[in-house]
Design goal:
The complex is a heterodimer. By secondary structure, chain A is an alpha/beta fold. Chain A has 18 helices and 11 strands. Helices cover 29% and strands 24% of the residues of chain B. In chain B, α3 (103-120) links the parallel β4 and β5. The chains are: A alpha/beta, B alpha+beta.
Amino acid sequence: MPGPHDHAKSWLTRIAALPRTGKVRILNVCGGHERTITHSGMRTALPDDIELIPGPGCPVCICPEEDIYDAIQLALNEDVMLVAFGDMLRVPVNVPKREPRSLEQAKAAGAGIQPIATPAAAAAIARAHPDRQVVFFAAGFETTMAPVAAMLAEGVPDNLSVLLSGRLTWPAVAMLLDSGEAAFDALVAPGHVATVMGADEWQFVPQQHGLPCAVAGFTPASLLAAFHSILGQLHRRQPALDNCYPESVTAGGNSLAKSVLARVMRVTDAKWRGIGMIPASGFTLQPAYSAHDARRRFISKTTAANNPAKEARKRIGEMPPGCDCAAVVLGKISPTQCALYGRACTPRDPVGPCMVSDEGACRIWWANGMRADATGRKPDIDAARA
Amino acid sequence: MSYITLAHGNGGRLMRELIDEVFAPPLNSPLLDTGADAVALPIDTANHEIMLTTDGFTVSPLEFPGGDIGSLAVNGTVNDLAVAGATPLYLSLAVIIEEGFALETLRRIVQSIANAAAAAGVQVVCGDTKVVPRGQGGGIYITTTGIGQRSASLAPAIHNIRDGDAILVSGPVGDHGIAVMLAREQFGLRGDVRSDCRSVLTLAQALLPLFGLRFMRDPTRGGLATVLNEISLATGFGAVIDESAVPVRESVRSVCEILGYDPLYLACEGQIVAVVAPESATEALRIWRSTDRGHDARIIGRVTSAHRQVIQTTGIGGQRVIEELEDDPLPRIC
């Protein structure tokens, strides 16, 4: 009887049968990919010369510190109900010790904050509380921005506004490759993003940078098929863009979602936490939707003039002292190479955002038993060393 | 009288009426004397040890598919006694009710307590009622204390566990955690997952006479992963679990995939994790599967002295470490 993992196992066999071309570093740019890889123990099942590197695939990790600070202040100082994706609640910002440093702490201090899992839930909460101002702190990549745009395009109650912090994935990879500091030999492109925006967004990887690239889905089998494709491209020295998630991804993407996205939001230069400004990498609301912009509705009231503490704050926009999340996000170091990993920084008491989110590489590695061992690339199982 | 008021907790006439009219009749226990300060309990102490356990219960929402806070409060305490090898006999029932609580809801919860107690063969023999001002309680909180008796010769305990022992689970994991989460309707998700809230007494007692039974525990908060880590911590042994052997309902698995939860960490309220000697594993499985609640029982792994961690062999043949739960799971962005 065929088992659910036979497909994945056959890809593992095919990968093992490929001629080796030396050490290969493959970057992924989706927290979902990293979760599947780590959760399935893929690093322990693949040959040792294949290194899988988590990259800039965690929207929580790169969400500007200023935006989270604004969300916290808004929830604390205005009579609003702030809704946000659950994993956003625990991200710490840089504030003096006695102040609430995360939305979770602000909630404990009495601010109206509620976790949600879908953009639709934000509109539903606003409809259920017509007498309250509801602010949706919408952080995320294209996959999240498309449903946020659809929700706004369909029409939302007047009492709902959006604190938008949306980002595009490909510009971060382009920036990394352009910088000459990219520490990877090939790229696995994100399946969900490509479903919306199209696989062709990633053509620049092979065409401009000569690196193999494959779009993958979220099962072990789909990721292994992408790795097999990449290793084959390397062996043949013919980098190209391969679509290993054809059941969901087309070259041009979802044209309806893209047109709604363009109607509601426009692309703008945007800050990435700990990384800085990346050109054309963020979303902002189009003028027609500015009535629902929480920044216009509330934030202007809590600007520097009214809130001297805000601009006196230290390390605005930065990662916390000693935190290497920015290097982890860019795939320059592995989570276990950060000096704080598992010591000062754990999921219970996170320092950097990568230890907070289920999409964050540090959190994913820690939750699956990857400790600060010598290589940091595989789980630290005693028996494996025996 | 359709809502609970502060007067229901003042010790006077309203409180007596509440106890005598709402609590006592459904509970229908011959030993329950609502006028007495304490109750004398017949227990066969010549051949048994007395086992005592207590637990407090809060849940939101109070009623969910497959159960409510009443059945939870009975089964939670009954199950703690059952997995320790005891036969549950008597329960105490302490409730803290919030002012304004609907009497009709209270009646349903008391009936649910009575039904769960009858199903597990225990009597509620004493109780207490307090009322707190509106806004100071989540509707109703319940604490139950349970007394059971156990043959000293049948005493499964964590320190009996040996290298190479087999680990079994009595059925699918994560049903309760997902059912309650869906019932909150907080995340815009709907589903037909029912809580597995029930007494595990039949399952526990079926296994008790088995030579080679080492240990049983019900995986409630923190789920299967937590029980396995507790075993590892207490014994110094590791465990190896086969991912494809752990039973998880498809509906539970898909909600977990959407929200980024791991079913191994979700609460069950009607399952048992058992550790048995390797040569008794097949017999244990046969025994469970022949009960009407253990059809889906599986052998999921084994205890090992080769390491001190809980390792899961994944479906693709990889390995990962099952860590202790760090904090409450929160849904992720995408």
